[in-house]
Every structure is written in C-alpha cells, then in structure tokens.
Amino acid sequence: MLDFMYYNPVRVHFGKNALEALPGELSRFGKKVLLVYGGGSIKRTGLYDRIVSALRESGKEIFELGGVMPNPRAEKVYEGIELCKREGIDLLLAVGGGSTIDCAKAIAVGARTDRDFWEAFFKNWEEAHDAIPLGVVLTIPATGSELDKSAVITNMATHEKNGYDSERTYPQFSILDPTLTYTLPKHQMVNGIVDTISHLYELYISPPDEECLTDALAEACLRTEIDAARRAVIDPEDYDARANLMWTSSFALCGMLNNGKKTDWESHNIEHPISALYDVAHGAGLAVVHPAYLDYILPYAVPRLKRLAVNVWGVDPQGKTDEEIARAGVAATRDFFHALGAPVTLGELGLGEEAVDPIADLTDLSCFSYQPIAREDVVAILRSAL
After folding, report:
1. SS3 state of residue 348
2. DSSP type of residue 39
3. Which of 130, 136, 110, 118 is nearest to 35 (CA)?
4. How high does pLDDT run on average in the chain?
5. Category of 121 on φ-ψ map: left (φ > 0), alpha (ψ -120 to 50) or beta
6. What CA–CA distance (Å, rounded) separates 16 from 180?
7. Closest by alpha carbon to 339, among 199, 251, 240, 229?
8. Are the beta carbons of 139 and 42 closer than 8 angstroms?
9. Rg (Cα) of the chain, in Å, rounded?
10. Rounded Cα–Cα distance for residues 351 and 79 (Å)
11. Residue 59: how many CB atoms within 10 A of its CB?
12. Which of 13, 6, 8, 9 is nearest to 247 (CA)?
C-alpha cells in the first residue's frame, strides 16, 4: 500500500428526509444565493418549488442560473461568474447531477479572482486562493462530484474537456435523497451507473496489487452497484436499490478508495475528447471506451483483472488460465453495460473510423498505471471499439 493523506470536509445528509436539513445549512451562509440547475427537470418534478420555498423561508435573496447542459461548458461558467460578481453572491446552491455541480465549482473559484477561470485553473492548474461556498442537492448519482473536489468543464471553442481540483472546490454540504432519483429517465440512470463503475475500476484496477482494505472496499462497492443496478432497472422506485446507487456513486469518489493506490484514469482521458468533440454523454462514452481499454492493457494487468473477474463478477476459475479468467471479467463488464442498454461500440454512438484520429490527438496520455499509453495505443483501443 502506498503512502497517502486523506481529507474530506463535506457534510452529508442522506435519506428520504434529507432535504429537511437544507434550512439549517442555509443559516450558516449569507443572504444572496445563486441557484444553479440544468434543463428544467427540477421544475417538472416539483423539487424547484421545494428548494425555493426553503430559501425564501430562510430569508434568502434568490438568483438563478438555469440551463446547465451535460458536459458543462465554459460559456455557462462565464455567465455564472459575471452574475456572482455583479450581485455579490454569498452561496452557490447546485441542484442536479455532476454537470450542474461541476459548473458551480468552476463558478465558485472563478468568481473570486480576476484571473480567467479557464486559463488559470482548467488550463494551467494555478492555485485557487478563494471560492464562493457551495452546497449541493443531488438528483443524479454518477460523477461523485457531490463528495469530491474535482470539476470537469468542456470548452467547445477549443474542443477541450479539462479537469481541475482544489480544496476550495469541496462542497460545504451535500443533500442526498434517493427518492429524488425516481423520475430519472432510464438512459440517465444507466449512464450514471456506468460512470460509477468506471470510477471504481479506475481506482481498483491499478497497482499495487497486494491485499489491502482499499481494494476490499472497492470490490464491495462494485458488487453493491451491480446488484442495485439490476434491481433499479426493473423497479425504478426500489428505494434500497436507489439508495445504494446514490451512496456507492458518492463513496466511490470521496477519496477513501484512492488511499494507497496509484489509480488509472486513462479511460476517462480517452473519453473526454469524445464528449468534447461530439457532445456524447459521458457515461455512454465510457461504456464504449472502458472495456476496450481493459482488453488492451490486459496482458500487463492479468492478476488484478483475474481478481476482478472472480471477486466481483463471480467467474468460475476452474479449468481456465489466469488470462482466460481475466478476459471473462472484461467480457462480463461489457455484457453488463450492454444488458443495461448502454452502447458498447463507437458505431452505437454514431462514430466511425473518421473519429479515431481526432479523439487520439486530444487524449491526455498521463494517467496510465500498468502500462504507458501512447497515441498509437489510443488509436488501437478506439479501432477495437468500432
């Protein structure tokens, strides 16, 4: 196990009545609140009215930034920064999923500096010295952004999808009510499940391979996610299934499963250009890329992928070589994504051979673990997924 430092300051309220904690949390911050949300589903479900009522009863002055899109874009961040600076916003309240939360995180640091948020933070990774406090009401379990310090923003002008993290971008509090996910369209639920599993894989399928608590926790999370996903697809209002999907997604990126691990984020790095270039949903892109990536690195990661196959997917090792067991685990992953209704080929995303070189050109090659990845490797991985 590698050395590590663990820190997570987020206050979490979890459960059917978690939203009742919002007024108490609001009392810790100033008067002016910017409500950040996406395409309007929170209005259709009635959640918007509940949030606004709590804000008004808490004596808050409400400002709004709606229309945050999937793969949140730099132009929406700039819009939020301008609003925050003009109005002197005291608290950002992100209501939605990872896109909304990430947009709010970028606004939080961008509004407390004279530097350009994209160039300073998402391009050059400069230190953020201040940020507007951020609270979260989660409606889409997927990215884990409600419990971590990371944000990913897409700059369509430059075809870049970059990440940034800082201790300034941790939410102050996160409200997690699984019942708020009952109305999610199936494709959004499935994309969230894929994203969560990819996060868990990127933490788990990395050295060192020696037995440790971190790996055992990751295996438990994976088994829980898989079981809950199968149940939620059948019954979208299975509370226990929804609760496990939500908490597993959050726990995956709370920092606990990084401890002592190298981690491998190359699948995300290959997927990011797909989203940036073709506006593909992140989870859908990962469903295609991640199994293809694992197939490609398998010769260098047989012991770890064998353990995944046996301990998570229940592959019977009898009569099989270690490599055959490992390949069965990767195949089980792809088959599971397909059974949920996720795409597993680039063709299902509407992409063909013409997309391979542009994606490879924009792929960050720095986040491998078992084997260094070069541009030609990315090309081979993508072609195997056509």
Report:
1. helix
2. S
3. 136
4. 97
5. alpha
6. 9
7. 229
8. yes
9. 20
10. 32
11. 9
12. 13
- List, for residues 163-221, the tens digit of each pLDDT value: 999 999 999 999 999 999 999 999 999 999 999 999 999 999 999 999 999 999 999 99
Amino acid at 121: F
Q: How many CA atoms lie within 13 A of 155 on its CB side?
A: 14
DSSP secondary structure code for residue 253 in this structure:
T
Which tens digit of pLDDT belongs to each residue from 86-134? 999 999 999 999 999 999 999 999 999 999 999 999 999 999 999 999 9
Helices 322-340 and 282-297: angle between axes, nearest 10 degrees: 170
Give the residue from 26, 42, 46 showing the smallest Cα distance to 34. 26
Q: How far apart are CA 274 and CA 161, in angstroms?
A: 9
Q: Minimal CA–CA distance to 47: which of 219, 182, 249, 247? A: 182
Sign, CA torsion 266/267/268/270: positive
Are residues 269 and 367 in contact, defined by beta-carbon separation less than 8 angstroms? Answer: yes
Tokens of 288: 């295609």
| H helix intervals, the chain | 22-26, 41-44, 47-57, 74-87, 98-110, 117, 186-204, 213-234, 239-252, 266-278, 282-297, 302-311, 322-340, 356-362, 375-384
Alpha-carbon dihedral 290, 295, 301, 303, rounded to 10 degrees: 110
Judge whether 269 and 11 are in contact, CB under 8 Å: no
Per DSSP, the residues of 206-220 read: SS--S--HHHHHHHH
Q: Residue 45: beta bridge partners?
A: none
Residue 208: cis peptide before it, omega within 30 degrees of 0: yes
- Which candidate, 380, 379, 369, 88, places its Cα nearest to that of 201? 369
Contact, 32 vs 132, CB < 8 A?
no
**Which tokens in the block code for residue 56?**
């008004």
Q: Which residue has the tokens 């530097």?
A: 115
What secondary structure letter does DSSP report for 18? G
